[in-house]
User: Fold this.
Amino acid sequence: MTDVSTTLKQEQNKELVRRIPEEVLGEGNLDLLDELYGEDAVEHNAMGTHHGQTAIRASFEAFLTAFPDISQTVEDVVAEDDTVAIHITSQGTHEGELAGIKPTGN
Assistant:
């Protein structure tokens, strides 16, 4: 049986995570990262695992430099306890180097 306060917290966490593709990447609002991630946050993404706000911001800056026209569609968000996973579909043009991969223009 699920506690109502736990369910509410999970829903709040899911809404926070949705803001990453929609506002951070979609609108380029990197300043929002400080609101969304705590000092001890851990971000797992295609470029690796990033610990703390500084490393997480650097990861997003690199990604936006490589894909300045990125658009993302949220397909699903799942939360359990304090862990949230998001399934997104991304489209963009590879215009800058990312993780040692030269831009392809695709």
Notes: The mean pLDDT is 92. The CA atoms of residues 47 and 99 lie 7 Å apart. The domain at 4-91 is CATH 3.10.450.50 (Nuclear Transport Factor 2; Chain: A,). The first helix runs from residue 4 to 25.
